[in-house]
Amino acid sequence: MSKKVVVFDYGFGNVRSAERALAHVGADVEITRDFDRAMNADGLLVPGVGAFAACMRGLRDARGDWIVDRRLSGGRPVMGICVGMQVLFARGVEHGVETDGLDEWPGTVEPLKAPVVPHMGWNTVTPAEGSALFAGLDAETRYYFVHSYAVRDWSLVVTNEAIKPPLVTWAEHGEPFVAAVENGPLWATQFHPEKSGDAGSQLLTNWIGTL
User: Fold this and answer.
1) Which residue range forms the structural domain that includes residue 200?
2) What are the per-10-residue average pLDDT scores of the chain (211 residues)?
3) Least packed by Cβ within 10 Å: which of 34, 85, 101, 200?
């Protein structure tokens, strides 16, 4: 039986591209902002394009902040993409203005320090050891990025031995930045798997396989 995945439609994401990519790998996909459907799906995908502050306003207006928090409290899978990943952190800073994020992870989304910004195009990543998200993908695989902001110099220290620390995947554009995180039911990528061809399809297949 196909896994039911809701692409959360709050006005700030490439929902059609995500829908097509998920359907391509066998998911039963629905684009909606309906509260009950988003809560009850096997997986919730949160896309994001544009400014951090605008995405946060859109999420809150659609009760997305509450949905994400409630799903994770119940151990129900959520995946964020691009700004949909960034808003999972505590705050974002754009043009000197600080905006609160969903605070599922500590950390700040800041401007990339690189000779060329935005970071646009194909880049390799360094997956965390034991990554399930990047299973079957080698170190030379490239993924499609479009962003000017990222989380840098980040780690999440877990002191409770019963809790597994998150798996953090890195990439580099001028400096290292967080490219993906796997943390229990919460996974996220800075790049766009739905625009990353066969590699993106494998990655989404890996996620759906955990639902």
Assistant:
1) 4-208
2) 95 93 97 97 96 96 96 97 97 93 96 95 96 96 98 76 83 97 97 97 98 96
3) 34
The pTM score is 0.95
Is 194 considered catalytic here?
yes
The answer to whether 119 is a known catalytic residue is no
CA distance 126 to 180: 10
140 is catalytic: no
Q: How many domains does the chain have?
A: 1
CATH number at residue 173: 3.40.50.880
Catalytic annotation, pick one of 82, 104, 147, 173: 82
- Contact (Cβ atoms closer than 8 angstroms) between residue 43 and residue 8: no
